[in-house]
C-alpha cells in the first residue's frame, strides 16, 4: 500500500507546474523587487461549525488551533511558516491550511463525528501562489479591490477578494523591512490566468519608478 501511495504521489502535477520556469524568469530584482512562486499541494480543509458550539470546540481541539472569530482574522501559523493556520471565510465557515501530507482531514472528521458541521477536503480545489518583495503590495493594488493599506490589512490578515477578476483568498503572511509577503489562493481552474495576470502586473516594476 505504501508503494502505491508513493507512486501516486510521484504522479501528482500541480496546476502551475507548466509555469515553473516562467514564474522564475518573471522575478523582478532591484529596489522594486517582486517575485512569484507556487507552493503546491498544501492540505486545505473546509470547516463548518457554529461558533462556540460543541462541534466548534471539537474541531479546535483536533486542529490544535482556535477558530477565527471575525472577518480577516487568521489563527495558528499566521505567517505561513509550515504549521496549521485557519482562515475566516464566514460566520461559521473556515479554511484550515496545513503542510502537504497532513492527516488533518482524518483527525477533524473523527473529532466532529455526528455533530452538526462539516469537514471537507479541499486540497485539490485551490493552489497557492506566494508573492513577495518590496513591490508586492503595489502589484496587487493594480487589480485588487480590497483595501491593502497597512492600517487595515497587515500580516495575519486574510480575505476573500478578486485579483484581475479572479476570485481568490488573499492572505498576508509577513512584512519586514518594507518587503511584504502574500499568499494568493485561486481555484485550480483559474490558477494559470491568475498567475499570468500577476506576472504581467509585475513587469511595471522592472524599470525605474516614474515620478
Overview of this protein structure:
With 211 residues, the protein is α+β, with helices and mostly antiparallel strands. The strands form 2 sheets. It has a 5-stranded antiparallel sheet. A 5-stranded antiparallel sheet has the order 3-4-5-2-6, covered by helices on one side. β4 and β5 form a beta hairpin.
User: How widely separated are the two ends?
Assistant: 62 Å
- Strand content range: 25-35%
Order of helices and strands: HHEEHEEEHEEHEEEH
Overall geometry = globular
Average pLDDT confidence is 94
Q: How many strands, what sense, and barrel or not for the largest sheet?
A: 5 strands, antiparallel
Task: List how many beta strands DSSP finds.
Answer: 10
The strand order across the widest sheet is 1-7-10-9-8
Unreliably modeled segments: none
Helix content: 25-40%
Give the tags.
single chain; 211 residues; alpha+beta; five-stranded antiparallel sheet; 25% helix; 29% strand
Topology:
Blueprint: H1 2-11, H2 20-25, E1 35-39, E2 43-48, H3 54-63, E3 74-76, E4 85-90, E5 93-98, H4 104-112, E6 118-121, E7 128-133, H5 136-141, E8 157-163, E9 166-176, E10 179-186, H6 191-202
Antiparallel strand pairs: 1-7, 2-5, 2-6, 3-4, 4-5, 7-10, 8-9, 9-10
Summarize the structure.
The chain is α+β, with helices and mostly antiparallel strands. The chain has six helices and ten strands; from the N terminus they run ααββαβββαββαβββα.
